[in-house]
Design a protein that fits this description.
Elements: H1 2-16, H2 21-48, H3 55-65, H4 71-91, H5 95-113, H6 125-140, H7 159-179
Length: 181
């Protein structure tokens, strides 16, 4: 009876144990790839007009109509932030800054769409999901399946790197919003 109860106890403990670390790495890789590819594609719409985007001219006009000075310059900044931030997330390369780049653009996108409700097509659900997911990746790090694992400074990811990067994104995004009409 004792061996049976010990066997049941050990089975119950192993069933409730957290998944092994590689499962977390695979999960982070899937999130990084999905968010990164989507952000990079969205940025390339702004920069190059790919995937039905407006390119620099169309996106620049949108930024000007949204109250930003130098609309085309803002389109370049937003497009580069999304594209390079997205590619950084895909590779797991300087992940805290890559996530912060996406966060900064999404803060401005939320500000532009504010007042349209929460749900699509005029709401902020897409932008909020992007911003929160990117911030989460900046905080957690990319996992072991990433280029960062081979960089001496970022090998041992610290939450402080993510916090500092996201704070930087919020400060810069807020400054950009201050110059918006």
């Amino acid at each position: 009876m004792t061996s049976t109860s010990n066997s049941l106890r050990s089975t119950a403990q192993s069933d409730s144990a957290p998944p092994p670390l590689p499962a977390y790495d695979l999960g982070l890789l899937i999130v990084r790839l999905t968010l990164g590819i989507t952000a990079a594609a969205h940025g390339s719409q702004k920069l190059f007009g790919w995937f039905g985007g407006g390119g620099l001219d169309g996106t620049g006009q949108f930024f000007t109509m949204s109250g930003y000075p130098s609309g085309k310059t803002m389109a370049v900044i937003a497009g580069l932030s999304e594209t390079l931030g997205g590619l950084g997330l895909v590779l797991g390369l300087i992940t805290p800054l890559a996530g912060a780049a996406v966060v900064g653009v999404m803060i401005n996108a939320i500000a532009v769409k504010w007042g349209g409700g929460f749900f699509a097509p005029d709401g902020i659900e897409y932008e909020l999901l992007f911003a929160v997911t990117a911030a989460g990746l900046a905080f957690t790090g990319p996992g072991r399946l990433a280029v960062d694992r081979h960089l001496p400074v970022l090998r041992a990811h610290r939450v402080g790197y993510g916090v500092a990067a996201v704070v930087l994104a919020v400060v810069i995004a807020s400054l950009v919003l201050l110059i918006r009409n």
